[in-house]
From TrEMBL:
Entry GO CC: endoplasmic reticulum membrane; focal adhesion; NADPH oxidase complex; nucleus; perinuclear region of cytoplasm
Reaction catalysed by this enzyme: NADPH + 2 O2 = 2 superoxide + NADP(+) + H(+); NADPH + O2 + H(+) = H2O2 + NADP(+)
Residue ranges of coiled coil: none
Protein name (Swiss-Prot/TrEMBL): NADPH oxidase 4
Species of the source: Illadopsis cleaveri
Subcellular locations according to the entry: Cell junction, Focal adhesion; Cell membrane; Cytoplasm; Endoplasmic reticulum membrane
Listed EC numbers: 1.6.3.1
Amino acid sequence: FQFFWLSLNVWLFGKTFLLYNQGLQYYYLHQMLGLGLCISRASASVLNLNCCLVLLPMCRVLLAFLRGSQKVASKKTRRLLDKSKTFHVTCGVTIGIFSVLHVAAHLVNALNFSQNYSEEFVTLNAANYRGEDPRKLLFATVPGLTGVIMVLVLFLMFTASTYAIRVSNYDIFWYTHNLFFVFYMLLMLHVSGGVLKYQTNLEEHPPGCFNPNKTLRQNLTVPKAFEELFPDYTTEPFPEDLPVPEPFVQNSFVRVCSEEPKFQSHFPETWFWISGPLCLYCVERLYRYIRSNKPVTITAVISHPSNVLEVRMMKDDFEARPGQYVILHCPRVSALESHPFTLTMCPTDTKATFGVHLKVVGDWTERFRDLLLLHSNQDTEILPIFQQRRYPKLYVDGPFGSPFEESLNYEVSLCVAGGIGVTPFASVLNTLLDGWKCYKLRRLYFIWVCRDIESFRWFADLLCMLHNKLWQENRPDYINIQLYLSQTDGIQKIIGEKYQALNSRLLIGRPRWKLLFDDIAKCNRRKTIGVFCCGPNKISKILHKLSNSSNSYGTRFEYNKESFS
């Protein structure tokens, strides 16, 4: 997809380049600036398109509505919505590449405006006189100064978006990425300068014409490209032995100007491109702010092994589907920073409680844990709301859609989790515990890979309850649970007699993915199986490759991957 999008933008760049290179209305400007004009305008058209579309994947409410509405009935189309983050990143990379071209072209334009100053076309010049310092055009004009600041903003946003910075210090990524609003405001001012102009009176003053009110210029010629496109402008000498009619002199020998060339700045087309998406995004952010303005009621906080915290909450009129995620904002932790977490428990008709599991791995989660627990080093099992304890205010934005909503819409699903990546599947398992007969799903393969044995205790009770429920309903084949302990010094078991059903499904080592896919394909011939993965990229790439490979059983695998947008 990334290659296709970049190729499409290169094609748009080429078409716009040719338009400005051959267009008559830019003849005099092209004579002054050369290829700098074509490159700057062509790259600007690509930037307009991508600055318009880069905001749309961040409209989470719109995406959640489209995914949950019947208007997008096609499963294949809904899967395209899951590529929103990939599309956002691709547009961002495209903006970075063509911004470099745009800046380089305008640096050349500033130099050409100074060196090729023309007293004949004063209004066409950006410089005030020949030899003017080009740095004045960059730092003393609105287009130049806003362009310089936008380059600095883009540099900060791009460098802070790299994987190394996002992992080491997410705060830097968060704050610099929110500079996008400054970037768009500067962009609105940048295009209002009207530096590049086009000719408006081509009929009255075609390029290369003769103006009787001025001194006749010697060796008057017209570019060959214009002779082919406009034979009326040809300058071939008329035969001497034939009479020359007056109209023919004007139309075929040389055109006579009726007035001076007039130039006009382009209307800021960028406004048309970005105003719609920017307004849509601002309206959505306002809607999300109003929707999440009321804090939730925290009903319980549970500390799990391996630095995992479970928070259970209640909120009026909160509805969510299995697999969706929410964004948590705690002002006492950070005034501006928010983080997405997958719902591990969704509200139902019988209970209004919903919850999330979060792994304490960074500054934000550490401060959040310290505020929730009585003491940061105390393994409190459960802290009910009725205890004399005041929890900090917590705001929930969402829910928002994710690929795992589709896991219940397949007849057979394969769910693969790595460590804390099990959270999207927890809400699915909780939903099946409440009742599975109303869903299309008839068989679920659940694979969970962890490094330490204690991690399985996060959802051990849930897995055991679901296993026992299906046995009582005579459907033991409904779910196939496989737990893999990737790092161990010997045979280990999940502590507790009630976990005996899970201990029998606990395997040492890593899954043999090829054999696993072959076995599933053999047991589900000529069926379409949904593959869902939330875990390390290494596992994700393996599953993606196996899902795209063919098999001899006619089984088709459709790959889905969790990706917060």
